[in-house]
Design a protein that fits this description.
By secondary structure, the protein is an alpha+beta fold. The chain is built from 4 helices and 13 strands.
């Protein structure tokens, strides 16, 4: 607070016969400080249609959802891959994709349900505000037990993509490394206690997996 503001407050205090202006002023500053900190640290609320819930769902697509019901909402995939009763469906959205991994529900092989959901599109975030563009350092503050489970390289470019999984929570992060920056590019929601890389098919086109 500069000298002009201090003098101005003092004049107001004198005008109203206030004898405890100093203590009130300090309380006011403390209140403003607390409000400022809260506004900075509290993440913006995420719309339910784009909320990422570990071990459960991304938006309206949830684990265990029947593929036919899911398709009614998303329509025909723009791309995908399928083999041995398992499939990836890929829908192109603003700034990225929404991808769904599905397989047969049971041995009758009559219907499939959602096993994993991956999003790289803009606006999809966890309740903490983690989404596309979040640094791995920030993510680790909430998920300190993340383990690197896969590494890919983009041949010719030198970029690397590392998959970090929090198996117990059911969430994984695709982190692209460029120079000294480690930025999240996609988030996968999978069943809790089932590793993200347990799928029969992978979904990292253009990237070469390193053994």
């Amino acid at each position: 607070m500069n000298l002009i503001n201090i003098n101005y407050i003092a004049m107001i205090a004198l005008a109203f016969g206030c004898t405890n202006s100093t203590s009130q002023n300090q309380e006011g500053k403390a209140g403003l400080k607390d409000a400022s900190v809260e506004s900075i640290t509290k993440p913006a609320e995420v719309d339910n249609d784009r909320l990422i819930v570990p071990g459960k769902s991304i938006g309206k697509i949830f684990l265990g959802q029947d593929v036919k019901e899911m398709s009614k909402m998303l329509g025909t995939p723009d791309d995908g891959d399928a083999a041995m009763g398992k499939a990836w469906g890929i829908w192109h959205l603003d700034g990225g994709d929404l991808s769904v991994y599905s397989s047969y529900k049971d041995s009758t092989a009559t219907s499939r349900d959602v096993k994993q959901v991956v999003v790289s599109a803009e606006g999809y975030k966890t309740k903490e505000g983690f989404g596309k563009g979040t640094s791995i350092e920030e993510i680790r503050k909430t998920y300190p037990n993340l383990q690197r489970v896969e590494t890919y390289i983009l041949e010719g470019a030198g970029d690397t993509l590392k998959v970090f999984d929090e198996v117990k929570e059911g969430i994984a992060f695709d982190v692209i490394t460029k120079g000294n920056k480690h930025i999240n590019a996609a988030i996968t929601v999978h069943a809790k206690n089932i590793p993200v890389n347990s799928t029969y098919l992978t979904i990292h086109p253009g990237w070469k997996r390193l053994e």
